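Question thread 4412

I'm putting together a teaching handout and wanted feedback from people who do this every day. The idea is simple: show students a protein as raw sequence, then show them the structure tokens that encode its fold, then repeat with a second protein so they can compare. Below is the first pair exactly as I plan to print it.
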Amino acid sequence: MKVTPICAQCLLERAVKQVHLATTDKDLQSRVVASMMELLEREFTVDSVPCYIGTDRDLLVQRMTGVDPYKDLKARSNEMALRILPELQMSIDMMRSPVQKFRRAALIAAAANAIEFDVAGRDFCLADFKEIVDRVESDLVVDDIEPFRRLCKQVRNVTYLVDNAGEVALDTILISQIKRLGPRVTAVVKKGPILNDATLEDAKEVGLNSIADQVMDMGAPTIGIILNRASEEFKQVLFSSQLIVAKGMGHYESITELKLPCPVVHILRTKCSPVADHIGVPRNKNVVLLRRPEHA
């Protein structure tokens, strides 16, 4: 997925918000924003991918301030998700039908993608999340859950690309349901802080290691997948996958630029207009979208 004009606004606005989280030094704030404008001038072209520029923006803010702006927010997200996790798990355990259980788990995973900060034009607070979960079914605008479930019964391995902290705790519900259908699940997080994305530290904190068969990182802190920065180990896992579950908009932006050998299930909430428009749905809706390889 390529950038649109509104992406420039979001990329710069998010840099401003991040630098204010990172430091109160006005001169440093101004220098970071100036550097971000230079970055946009260099990298923002009609062929750019939003999450690639977003990655360089975040690394620029971290490098110049020496701070991970989202560290505290990520911790709060994990705590919130762990508090609500037992209630959500119980709602699934009470269902008799395995089909219904899988559907509910996928819907929770989609709603969990709402845990995001500093998207232009969208204010999110942690208290909003329960309301989003309550209306998760009515907010679903792309429903490929049943084909997704059937694929899980046919494959031997699934690569699950995790997105945000907090969200990762609720992903354990869907990963458990996938494993019940037979495949081995490798969960992939980011290597080091980038946005509010989950790292190995977050995975350990929420118990992902005890649910997935393997937890690994991509080899780099990137929004979505940037192949020339990823580790060889991750690329081997990615390209030997029989099914990929990709959480979030960053993975959607990057994976739509790649030719992968297997079906991809995108699970996300459309938090910005460019992603929503690319999919062809409204903003702030839930999506479970199955995309098959072009050669299939």
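The second pair follows. I'd like the answer to focus on this one:
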Amino acid sequence: MKRKPRSFKPAVESIVVLISGRGSNLHSILKNCPCRVAAVISNRADAEGLQVAAAHHIPTAVVSHKDYPDRASFDAVLAETIDSYRPELVVLAGFMRILTPEFVDHYRGRMINIHPSLLPAYAGLNTHARAIADGVKIHGCTVHYVTSDLDHGPIIIQAAVPVLKHDTPDTLAARVLREEHRIYPQAIRWICKHHVELNAAGKVHFKRLEQPGPALIFPSLD
């Protein structure tokens, strides 16, 4: 008598995604995420990503930062809204608000973000224009755990792209965004399957063999 294969139960069963805009990364997450997306929450009622979530029959909520006198009161209501869906992981996907240390501490080890640069280089805004202005040859994006140190949390995965001779911030951003759509769902899959965790030192630990990859050298060698 053959045994029935054991069904896989992910370590993370549900996530909540926070957005502020069109939900570009939300599209790729919904297509590739093994976890249940319990809700999509935005600080803007006109965020196009809310329509994306609704089209997938995912509950949505709006917590407008304009309705609150300060960051702390906004974050408190936002946390209450998130927690009402009981997620194991909070995913920031173009959520354009700086979060208070209290909020970040509440989700310590349970909140991730994607940033359009190869951190720790170019934290903050206008990353593509700054990279071009500095003449860097390789740029990219980073998925990391969120800490109170803005854009400097433990790194999960990065993708690199060349900076081409005639790049503008827009063309470079488009090339980086394609990689964002690849690596963000991958990071979420690893967490959902318990292949990635934070160790006692606050560093990312892989519970799987890391595969070697080719070096990216640009401009190429003669």
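Top answer:
Good format. For the second protein you could add a caption like this: Strands lie at 14-19, 36-42, 60-62, 89-92, 111-115, 138-145, 155-162, 196-198, 204-206. DSSP finds six helices and nine strands in the chain.
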